Amino acid sequence: MVMRKGVPAVFIALLAIAALACGKKGVPYDDQPSTSLRIEIVSGNNQVGPAGFLSDSLKVRVKTSTGQPVPDITITYAQITPVDSGHFPTPTWNIRKTDDQGIAYSLYYVDTQVGVDTIRAVASGLDDSIVYFVLQVTPEAAKKFVKVSPLTTLTTVAGQPMPVPYIVRVTDKYGNPVAGHRVRYVVQDSSVVVTDSTLAAGFESDTAYTRTDASGLASATWIFSVDYPGYYFSSDLRAYDSLGDLVSFFGAGTDPGTLTYYGAARPIFAAHCFSCHPSAYSDYSLDFYYQVKANGNMIPGDTTSPLLSDILPAHELTHLNFVEQNTIIRWVVTDNAAPGMSGLNNYHDNMKPIFDAHCISCHGDASPSGSYSMTTFDGIRGDGSDAVPNAIPGDAGCRLSLKMASATADNMRLYFGADSVALADSVTRWIVVDSLRDY
After folding, report:
1. Which letter does DSSP use for residue 166 in this model?
2. Fewer beta carbons within 10 Å, N or C terminal of the chain?
């Protein structure tokens, strides 16, 4: 009997151990569903809207691990970035309780500065108790249009851009920059305004359009015409935004004095004409002063010079704006096509220093390249290995003159360094116009 009673006792113990290993209903063992509570976002995250807007509901739900809603849980909402910038409708709106569906929600006015607002929702007493809402704040509608710079009246020589751009800013009512807002600049007929959108179409004159950048800024360049009588001349530049608001700038231009080929005309030709008239090998080149005068295309002081009709917008792709047109007209007609700095026409004083500095390293006396020495005036006029004179007075087609042209495959202009165009023009003028003058 003792042994019979002992066997059931051992058996019962083994069953208990097995039961503990397998778990029992209602006991939270690892292989059983958990009854813990957690919070989750239902809606309202990742909203995007203008500064100061009232958000849609920032809605959360508290439920069990099996999905059952949990009522009467306190939810505390708080803005954590940026600190103290936005606000809730009333102080009570940041503390809410879940309803029978486990739902709680709040509303929130976002910051007045662009950026990101972060709202934290905390459920009291839960293991997994925090969620975060992210709200993207964009600029409000454009409300302010202000002048940035310059704030004073500036003066410059007519024909030259004002020394600084004319800048305006567009913001919303909170001061946030508004990007992509259209701005229109308008000037009087005696000057031209240029923005980034008009650079490709230089014939725009008294009106130019642009849009604000990411900083809410727009800018324009202001240039006075050279043909306005009676300098000192003052004018105004007006900027309008698409709402019709206006700011005004004031500026003045002074008489530019005598315009020259190098100082005024050639930069315009280079910008608009060289693509078709670059060198001595085109039908009509504008690269050198003597070439501009060739074949009667430009006659100093003559209003009927063919060149003057070729600078109009209708001529091919010239696209000179009217300030540039007036510059060329004044240079030809009023200033008699003054050559400017191209008059380096004396061999000993002007040409020899150029040759000595840039040419005799290859064309010296000892063993000159091509048997052409450039150390003396006679050497310059002499023959090379082909027995053909290299410099012929008045001959634009002589070898030395052609070596100054930028389009030649073996041109020598590249050895002149930073001042290559001016120096090459001086040499060419000395040959063609000044006929190798030696005095």
Report:
1. E
2. N
Which tokens go with 413? 């202009």
Contacts of 369 (CB under 8 A, 6+ apart): 362, 363
Helix (H) or strand (E) holding 76: strand 74-81
Q: How far apart are the C-alpha atoms of 286 and 273, rounded to whole Å?
A: 8
- Identical topology for domains 37-138 and 142-254: yes
Q: How is residue 30 annotated by DSSP?
A: T
Domain residue ranges of the chain, discontinuous segments joined by +: 37-138, 142-254, 261-334, 347-432
Q: CATH says 37-138 is which class?
A: mainly beta
Handedness of CA 149, 151, 153, 154 (dihedral sign): negative
Give the 3-state secondary structure percentages of the chain, helix then strand then coil, rounded to 5.
Answer: 25, 30, 50
Q: What is the pLDDT along the chain (439 residues), one digit of tens a residue?
A: 333 333 344 333 433 334 334 433 333 334 444 458 899 999 999 999 999 999 999 999 999 988 999 999 999 999 998 876 789 999 889 999 999 999 999 999 999 989 999 999 999 887 668 999 999 999 999 999 999 999 999 999 998 899 999 999 999 999 999 999 999 999 876 788 888 876 544 445 688 899 999 999 999 999 988 876 666 777 889 999 888 899 999 998 888 999 988 789 988 988 888 777 765 445 677 776 767 877 788 999 999 999 998 887 667 666 788 888 899 999 999 999 887 654 557 788 888 999 999 999 999 988 898 889 999 988 998 887 778 889 987 788 888 988 888 656 667 888 888 788 888 888 888 888 777 776 5
Taking the model in full, what pTM does it have?
0.64
As its CATH architecture, domain 142-254 has: Sandwich (2.60)
